[in-house]
Amino acid sequence: MTRQIVSIVGGKDVPATSTYISANPARTGEVVASVGLADAGAFAAACRTAKEAQREWAKVPAPVRGRVIASIGRLVEANAEALARLVTEEIGKPYKESLGEVREIVDTCDFFLGEGRRLYGQTVPSEMPDKNLFTFRNPVGVAAVITAGNFPVAVPSWYLVPALLCGNAVVWKPAEYAAASAHAMYKLFAASGLPEGVLNIVFADGKETFEGLDLALSEGSVQKVGFTGSSEVGRKIGELTGRHLQSACLELGGKNPMVVMPDADLALAVEGALFGGFGTAGQRCTSLGTVIVHESVHDEFVERFARAVSNAKIGEPMGDVLAGPLLDEKFAVRYEEFLTWIQPHHEVVTGSTGKISKESPHHEFTGEDGLYYHPVVVDGVRPDDRLFLEETFGPIVGVTTFQTMDEAIELANLPGYGLSSSIYTTDAKNAFRFREGVSAGMVSVNNSTSGAEAHLPFGGNGKSGNGSRQSGMWVLDQFTRWQAMNWDHSGRLQKAQMDVADITPDLDFRLP
């Protein structure tokens, strides 16, 4: 039976104004959920509901909020397999990766449950006697969180868990094509005992969401916006929040480079490039974009990489495969446009491109009715090519060469993104020189461009974000505001920088 899903605000279902059909990309004729979409007015109303609920939630002691986060983690852990199966069914992510994604929610909860007892401020010494200075973390208020569907449950948890822990209320707008996964995750969070209205889920298309967010910001019912998605939309979100004197938490796309040095372990580099470039069918913000390989090892690396990619198993995502289908029909359409960027001076070293079918199978796999595409490696990519400069969300990786480390760093930074990066080398000097020169917010040494841990800052610079960070203690600065307090118990007005004791040194003193 098809799931019927609608928005939930204040614990109550919200009537829909239109319907979206979420289909299984492995079998596009199979409906996963019928999703009732709300309009801009409903989104703004959800933010008003959250604003009312947040006042009481903020009064709950932070250690108690931490116990709620602990309960969420245990609930997700107990339902891990069911949630992972739903993720695989709805977006075609290989089941093993889906299990890892669900585990990321648990890890995030495990980290933040203790932060309820560590929302530390500081006691600061005053320059005047009988006066104490303090700092406190206060919740921002209401966070509007808008997320993509390639990581439909893990990435949202990076926002929801710390936001709730810090005493905020949340209005979450997930991607329509991953609505069933998001709805299931909402139910698990709600079962933890969160008061109604503290977490709300709204399904809406991009236009209605943007208009609703604009209205909510104008009404003063949203104090923080978190957005994961494309750089193009991220710019618009940043402009909108900037007009209201807010700074959004933006986690955007990437054109993530992997540098292969002459001394690299090529077998390891190929393994990292294979997973980084084609895991989740290349549909991660941290997916490998371009391999920048030293000219002395170029031929051997390309031969090994092309063989590994050609032999990789593509197929039914519940099986043991490297990649399943693309996430949704709209991503398939976009990916086919990216394939047109292949130029005569390029060399496709992996064979077929385009959709996997009976006429163009990947080994024995024909793709049946799914959105399956051949993995593609393009050699001979140049720095002025679109394939080099722009994000290609899908199973395609470019290869180019370099001669010097300075050139490698310049090429790594040239596209203007700054999310993730990788270098393969056995020389520590190379690793640290690359780290110092690359603009990416994350650097891996002898590891792929993909991968995150719950206690490490995640985020990018340039086209990849505005410098905000998720995960670990660093994300607390996104969902709290510092408040300074001074307490003068001297019984008189002491004026800063004026009523300060002055001890005069003898600066003319010299040793004999």
TrEMBL record:
EC number(s) of the enzyme?
A: 1.2.1.3
Query: What Gene3D superfamilies has UniProt attached to this entry?
Result: Aldehyde Dehydrogenase, Chain A, domain 1, Aldehyde Dehydrogenase, Chain A, domain 2
Q: Write out the entry's keywords from A to Z.
A: NAD, Oxidoreductase
**Domain Aldehyde dehydrogenase, which positions?**
19-484
**Entries under Pfam families matching the protein:** Aldedh
Report the active site residues: 251
Keyword 4Fe-4S tagged:
no
The regions listed as transmembrane in this protein's record are: none
Question: Which molecular-function annotation in GO is an example for this chain?
Answer: aldehyde dehydrogenase (NAD+) activity
Out of the domains of life, which is the source? Bacteria
Assembly, in brief, is: Homotetramer.
Protein family per UniProt: Belongs to the aldehyde dehydrogenase family.
Protein name stated in the entry:
aldehyde dehydrogenase (NAD(+))
Native source species: Nonomuraea endophytica
